[in-house]
Write a structure and sequence with these properties.
This protein has 382 residues and is α+β, with helices and mostly antiparallel strands. The protein has 11 helices and 10 strands.
């Protein structure tokens, strides 16, 4: 009898006590571990994650739960979803604030995701290139909304990740981090940002890898003799802030009305504190749950694509670069009443070179605006 009991303990040695939730989690995400010791460590991380989910949902108040057990529940620091915002210490924001091109209409909601100005959700993989993705997506949108183009083309975050210089005021470090202002400054030194077929993304989606070397010859040839064969690109000439930037301190008093006004005309690159995002599963994340909105807590760059001010809890619509299997099919909704996650701290809009018919641009913008607002009438604000 003693030997039988001992044998049973050995069989269950990985966890000592059977846990159906843990078994379901492993099965759902096809988890496999090196050995019993590894599984015990992962099981411990899972329970820490589970307790944190409960704490975060408690901070949601009457808004309802937004957090749950996700693929990341058993991961160690540095595994899983990557971020990558790395801004120089004492950075000074010198760019001007965006000037609206059209009269303000103050729509109750707007969602650029419903237009051709937003491309499909991207996946930065195991590279800290969020800043490159955020900047690239913002350029994609401007190529449509400010040049009269009907459809967006997917541009190359790999070019930005690999080719942005690592030195100087705007230096960035590829997969080891960077910032959107650095991306825009780099893009002003070359003919343009190539399409994603010409310079495709090569960083691993599942394993950490060194930053791929800059394809200098391809970049040099973007606007060369073979441009008609290599495809379209976007020439970036500068950038502005959607609302005055906050580069230090708590950033609790950002001008959210100015951000909303900018979002009436274009999606906006934003940087955030994404510390709570690993356990986001859907719904509106409150500012209390997201945590600090301070400038020095920002660690991730994404894209604001609209807002809904008439929902029971009004929210900003934000696009992530962690694939469409994360969150709300790649998106997250952030409480609109506050500078949730610090999304208004560093909100930028690139300027894409335009050489064409201004009437065509206005007509094209109206087409996309009506799609973004569902065609509902809006009130012009003088």
């Amino acid at each position: 009898m003693f030997r039988l009991a001992a044998s049973s303990i050995v069989i269950a040695s990985s966890l000592e006590v059977f846990d159906q939730e843990w078994e379901d989690f492993k099965g759902l995400y096809k988890k496999q571990y090196k050995d019993d010791e590894d599984e015990r460590e992962r099981y411990s991380l899972y329970h820490i994650f589970k307790k944190n989910v409960a704490k975060l949902n408690a901070l949601q108040g009457d808004v309802g739960d937004a957090f749950g057990i996700t693929f990341a529940a058993d991961l160690k620091e540095g595994e899983g979803f990557q971020r990558g915002l790395r801004k120089p210490q004492d950075f000074v924001a010198t760019a001007s604030v965006y000037e609206k091109k059209y009269a303000r209409r103050a729509p109750a909601s707007i969602n650029w995701r419903d237009t051709e100005a937003i491309t499909a959700i991207k996946n930065q993989g195991q590279c800290g290139s969020c800043w490159a993705f955020s900047a690239t997506e913002a350029v994609e949108s401007q190529l449509v909304l400010s040049t009269g183009s009907k459809f967006a083309i997917e541009l190359s975050p790999q070019q930005v990740t690999s080719c942005t210089p690592s030195t100087g005021t705007y230096g960035s470090l590829g997969c080891n981090g960077g910032f959107t202002e650095g991306a825009y400054e780099y893009l002003q030194t070359v003919s343009g940002l190539a399409n994603s077929f010409y310079i495709p993304y090569q960083q691993s989606l599942t394993e950490s890898s060194a930053t791929v070397a800059c394809p200098t010859a391809l970049v040099a040839a973007i606007d060369g003799a073979d441009q008609m064969l290599s495809g379209g690109y976007a020439a970036v000439t500068g950038y502005t802030y959607a609302t005055p930037a906050c580069t230090s301190g708590a950033c609790a008093s950002q001008d959210l009305d100015t951000l909303a006004a900018a979002l009436e005309e274009t999606p906006v690159s934003v940087c955030v504190n994404a510390g709570a995002w690993n356990s986001y599963t859907g719904g509106v994340m409150t500012s209390a749950a997201c945590g600090s909105m301070a400038a020095d807590e920002q660690d991730h760059c994404v894209m604001a694509t609209g807002f809904n001010s008439t929902a029971s809890t009004p929210y900003w619509i934000v696009r992530n670069s962690w694939s469409d299997t994360w969150g709300e099919e790649g998106y997250i909704y952030l409480e609109m009443a506050k500078n949730t996650c610090g999304l208004a701290d560093d909100a930028t809009i690139p300027t894409v070179e335009y050489d064409g018919n201004s009437a065509k641009v206005a007509e094209n913008f109206e087409h996309h605006y009506l799609k973004a607002t569902g065609g509902a009438p809006s009130t012009t604000v003088v």
